[in-house]
Amino acid sequence: MFFNNFSELMAMDGHGAYVWAVVLISLLVLSSQIIIPLGRSRRFFVQQRMRLRRESNQ
Amino acid sequence: MWQFFHKLGSPRWFYEISGRWLPWLALLTAALLLTGAVWGLAYAPPDFKQGNSFRIIYFHVPASAVSMACYMVMAMAGAVSLIWRMKLAEVVMKCCAPIGASITFIALVSGAIWGKPTWGTWWVWDARITSVLVLFFLYLGVLALYEAFDNKEAAGKACAVLSLVGCVNIPIIYWSVEWWYSLHQPATIKFTEQSSMHPDMLQPLLVMIAGFYCFFAVALLLYTRSEILFRERNTKWVRALVEKSVG
C-alpha cells in the first residue's frame, strides 16, 4: 500500500475529504441504479400475484 | 443474422437470456470495481503535481466515458426503434436515460469536487464542462419527454428523435478540450497515441473503466428486464413466471 496506515489513507494529505466524498457519492448513485430496477421487478411480481389471487377468488 | 435480429427483438427471448448472463456479469462488475477502487485509492502512487486529489480520476474518467457511451447506445436504440419499429429497442432506449443521467451526474459532481483543490474553483463555464452539463439535461429531457405523453408509442418516437438530435453533442464533448482554450486538461488516454500516464496509475484506471462499462450493462439489463415484465404483463409467458414465483 502507498499509505503507511489507515488514518493516512483517510487523510490523503489533506485531500481525503474530496476523494472520499467522490467515492461516497459514486457508491450511492451507482447502487441506486441497481436498487431501483430490482425493486420495480419485485413490486411487479407482488402486484401480479395479488391480481392472480383476486382473479382466482372471483 | 436476420434470425438473430428477429430473436433479439423478442422480449421473452431477451428476458430469458439476460437472466442467465446477469449473475456472471454482476460478479465481474463487482470484482472489477472493487479491484480498481482499492488499487487506485490505496496502491497507486500520488500525482507529482496534484498529490492525492488526483485519485478522483478513478471515478471521474470512467463515469465521463460511460456517460457518452450510454448516450450513443440510447441514440442507436432510438434509431433502431424508429427504423425497424423494434419494441425492445424502444425499451432499451428508455432504460438508458436514468442510468445515463446518474452516471453523468457522477462525472459532473466528481469533476466539481476535483476542481476545488486543483483549480481553486468548483465550477467554470468552460466548453467541456458546459457540454457535459448539456448531456445531463439531454438525459433528463428524454426522461421528462417520455413521461409527458399519455400515448406511449408517440412518447417512444419523440424520445428517439430527441436522442438522435442530441448526438450532435457527443463529438462536441469529446473534442471540446482541443477546439477551445479550456481549463479542463486534454485526454490522457488516447486510442491513437501512447498514453501520457505512468503505467502504475494507468492500470487501475483501465480496470475502473472496464468496471463502469460492465456496471452500465448490468444496470441496463436490470431496467430493461423490469420494463419488459411490465409491458408484457398480459402475455402467457409473464403470467407463467408470476405463477411460478408463487411457488
Condensed summary:
The complex is a heterodimer of chains A (58) and B (247). With 58 residues, chain A is mostly helical.
- The count of β-strands of chain B is 0
Report helical residue fraction of chain B: over 70%
The major pleated sheet of chain B works out as: none
Low-confidence stretches of chain A: none
Using only C-alpha atoms, the radius of gyration of chain A works out to 22 Å
Shape of chain A: rod-shaped
Structural class of chain A: mainly alpha
Largest interface: which pair? A-B, 30 and 44 residues
pLDDT averaged over residues of chain B? 90
- Assess the beta-strand content of chain B as a share of residues: under 5%
The overall pLDDT of chain A, averaged over residues, is 90
Quaternary arrangement of the chains shown?
heterodimer
Query: What is the CA-atom radius of gyration of chain B, in angstroms?
Result: 20 Å
User: How many separate helices of chain A?
Assistant: 2
H and E order of chain A: HH
**What is the strand tally of chain A?**
0
Tally of domains of chain B: 1
What would you note in describing this structure?
- The complex is a heterodimer of chains A (about 60) and B (about 250).
- By secondary structure, chain A is an all-alpha fold.
- Chain A has a domain at about 30-60.
- Chain A has 2 helices and no strands.
- Chain A has helices at about 5-10, 15-55.
- Chain A starts with 5 loop residues before the first helix and ends with a helix.
- The model of chain A has no long low-confidence stretch (mean pLDDT about 90).
- Chain B is mostly helical.
- Chain B has one domain (about 15-235).
- Chain B has 9 helices and no strands.
- In chain B, α3 (about 55-85) runs parallel beside α8, α4 (about 85-120) packs antiparallel against α5 (about 125-150) and α4 (about 85-120) crosses α6.
- Chain B is globular and about 60 Å long.
- Chain B starts with a helix and ends with a helix.
- The model of chain B has no long low-confidence stretch (mean pLDDT about 90).
- Classes of the chains: A mainly alpha (about 60), B mainly alpha (about 250).
